[in-house]
Amino acid sequence: PLSYLVPPMETFMTAPEQLSPKSKRQLNLFALTRGYRLRYAAGIGALALGIGFSFLVPLVLKASLDRLPIEPVAEPGPGAGLDLSEPGLVLRFSEFLLGSGTGTSMLIWAAVLVLLLTSLGGFFQFLKGKLSAEASEGIVRQLRNRLYGHLERLPCRYHDKADTGDLVQRCSSDVDTLRMFLSGQIMEIGRALLLMATALPLMLGLHVGLTLVSMALFPVILLFAILFFHRTKRLFQLADEAEGKLTTVLQENLTGVRVVRAFARQEYEIGKFATRNEEFRRRLERHIHLLALYWGLSDFISMMQSGLVLLTGAWFLSQGTITVGTLVAFLSFEALLLWPIRQLGRVLSETGKAMVSLDRILDILEEPEETAEDAPQHEGLVALKGRIRFEGLKHHFREDEAALDGIDLTIEPGETVALLGPPGSGKSTLIQLLLRLYDASEGRILLDGRDQKELDRDFLRSQISVVLQEPFLFSRSISFNLRFARAGASESEIVESTRDANIHESITGFEHGYDTLLGEKGVNLSGGQRQRLALARALLKDSPILVLDDALSAVDTKTESQILAALTERKGRKTTILIAHRLSTVMHADRILILEHGRVVQDGAHDELIRREGPYRRLWAIQSDLESTLASELALVSSTNESTKDLPDRGASRETAS
Q: How confident is the model at residue 255 (pLDDT cuts 50, 70, 90)?
């Protein structure tokens, strides 16, 4: 266990890329303690002083007992028992206790000295606990911040395959397990080592034979502890993984509770949770059974060791090779050593848990971040004008399927370009590559003539306002969600963006207006309201490039026309990329691109494309026929309703006649 905390010297003398995975993890854990090593060193010093004062107490007892003013009683004859009428032993011991003779002052001074030494030992134990707690809490605080920051910077590919519940488990439960190890078990390991290093020379100085007897069963306990350590690591890892799966089920169901109820699948999901819960209980129970077995056997062996010392010491005492004080001192030393040995099960259990948790945490921290270390900085870069050039762009999410297959396209500053195409044609992939959520497999993207990869990611994304297919809103106020795009926006700018997104009247209709708190993911808003609020947030960002990825799919045609009219007034001020499925949404764009199978199959303005044979013309004809048919049916229903209003109510006539 200690090798995880203190890496070998060759770890520091080897190039990082040549280190083995285990050595890298040792070095990473050692690096976690940076800034708190002095506190740990001071804690170890306080622990050593506390142990030193604790070991002085048995020595004081030995000296006091060996100097008792009691004369030995003559040995009784064969077959005789203890002669209580002999006044020597009882009288002198009574005088010693009652204050007669010089024994009283020695007893008082011995008691005062024991009390003082115990108090000093307790004080340094308190100081040790305080310093170790400060160090562990500081390390864990840094680790949580580092983990969260690292997760924020990991590429989308990592989050695509990661389970959210498992990540939550690693950032909470695993970090807390490591905290418990850093706060308690490091000091317990240090305490056991210091006790052995201090007690062994003292015991050898008192009596070599009794010392060997005192250590007789230690190798058995140590071997048993090593076997237990490796076994408990594996069992805890299985239990921890099962808890991660349980957390994933819980997180998914809390997030999708409305879907579960809409399909009346509550009982199924409850059963699924119960299955995961049972698996977690079963694995954890195996771990607890192993702990119980170890604690029971270690307690039994420890008590055997203590009894062996007592019996052997009594025999040595009867032989006259040791004094009563020596035997009492040995029993005291044995009691001090037995406690950490009895605690060895807990120490090794927590150490095994900590090593498993550390591995799971370092699995995240060792993932390469999205931005490379040599990425250019954005200081001194001027705002983009909005010219976008795609050159030979190809991208594969899977080797056997191309999401984009050779896109060559130029979008001029201020131009509005609409993307149309069936699902899977590559529209959203193009936007994800533009935002550099993924790097293209082949080709490049130029922004104002500069390669996208030459720009810092943060600067690049600050130049693009985007509304994704699934708008995400935080469970905070509406004002907070809007200011997330630009924290320093004024009230008038916020109102302007919400008016353009046609959401201002809806917001002011709420009881608390812009201070209205939203549920998780904006659950207390309709789908159209969520989209319009996300659109307002993107407009408030006021970046030179605006991307709307199917951002108006949940609004009605009247609201859509009002939003498009507001966007038309902004036309020419921003380079706009518009993804939609309604032709009414894209028909006023400067250019319309039709994508199929990752390729651009048509490119032109609306008037040009409807005159040209191709997918756009066919789609226009289909949607026009549907709209005209729907309009005719609505008109027929409306006229029928109007005519029925003029007919007399027969029921009312009968009632009047009667």
A: confident
Locate all alpha helices (DSSP H) within 488-614, ordered by sequence. Answer: 491-500, 504-509, 527-541, 557-569, 583-586, 606-611
Query: Strand 575-579's sheet: what is its strand order?
Result: 464-467, 545-549, 575-579, 416-420, 591-596, 599-604
Burial degree of 299 (CB within 10 A; 0-12, 13-18, 19+): middle
Q: Are strands 575-579 and 416-420 parallel, antiparallel or unpaired?
A: parallel
Question: Rounded to whole angstroms, what are the CA distances from 439 to 222, 403, 433, 462?
Answer: 53, 13, 6, 18
DSSP-assigned letter for residue 126: H
Nearest-angstrom CA–CA distance, 519 and 329? 67
CA distance 49 to 399: 64
Neighbours of 653 (CB within 10 A): 10
Residue 161 pairs in a beta bridge with none
pLDDT of residue 83: 40
Give the rounded distance of the alpha carbon of 70 from its chain centre: 67
Higher-pLDDT residue of 614 and 14 is: 614
Helix (H, G, I), strand (E, B) or coil at 648: coil
Tokens of 510: 């709420």
Beta-carbon neighbour count of residue 416 at 10 Å? 22
The residue that leads in pLDDT, 6 or 272, is 272
Hey, what amino acid is at 273?
F
- H/E/C letters for each residue in 588-622? CCCEEEEEECCEEEEEECHHHHHHCCCHHHHHHHH
In sign, the C-alpha dihedral spanning 159, 531, 479, 491 is positive
Sheet of strand 442-447, all strands in order from the earlier edge strand to the far edge: 401-411, 388-398, 442-447, 450-451
**Which among 483, 511, 477 has a CA at the least distance from the CA of 495?**
483
The distance from CA 517 to its chain's CA centroid, rounded to whole angstroms, is: 26
**What would the mean pLDDT of 10-31 be, rounded to a whole number?**
51
Rg (CA), the chain: 39
* Cα angle value 439/443/447 (rounded, 5°): 75
What average pLDDT does this structure show over 227-256? Answer: 81
Count Cβ atoms below 10 Å from residue 95 Cβ, excluding itself: 15
What single-letter amino acid sits at 88? G
Spell out the residues 6+ positions from residue 591 whose beta carbon is closer than 8 angstroms to its own: 415, 416, 417, 418, 603, 604, 605
Mean per-residue pLDDT for 190-211?
79
Instruction: Note the pLDDT tens digit of each residue in 489-512.
Output: 889 999 999 998 889 988 998 888
152-183 pLDDT, tens digit per residue, is 888 888 888 888 888 888 888 888 888 888 88
DSSP H helix total and E strand total for the chain: 27, 10
Q: Where are the alpha helices (DSSP H) in 154-265?
A: 156-161, 164-169, 175-180, 186-206, 208-214, 218-255, 257-262
Q: Which residues of 302-325 are buried (b: 16+ CB within 10 A; e: fewer)?
A: beebbeebeebbeebeeeeebbeb
The count of C-alpha atoms lying within 13 angstroms of the C-alpha of 609, restricted to the half-sphere facing its C-beta, is 26
Residue type, 369: E
* CB contact set of 211 (below 8 Å; sequence gap of 6+): 200, 203, 204
- What does the alpha-carbon distance between residue 482 and residue 487 come to, in Å, rounded to a whole number? 8
Alpha carbon distance 269, 263 (integer Å): 11
* pLDDT tens readout for residues 61-96: 777 766 665 444 444 444 333 343 344 443 343 344
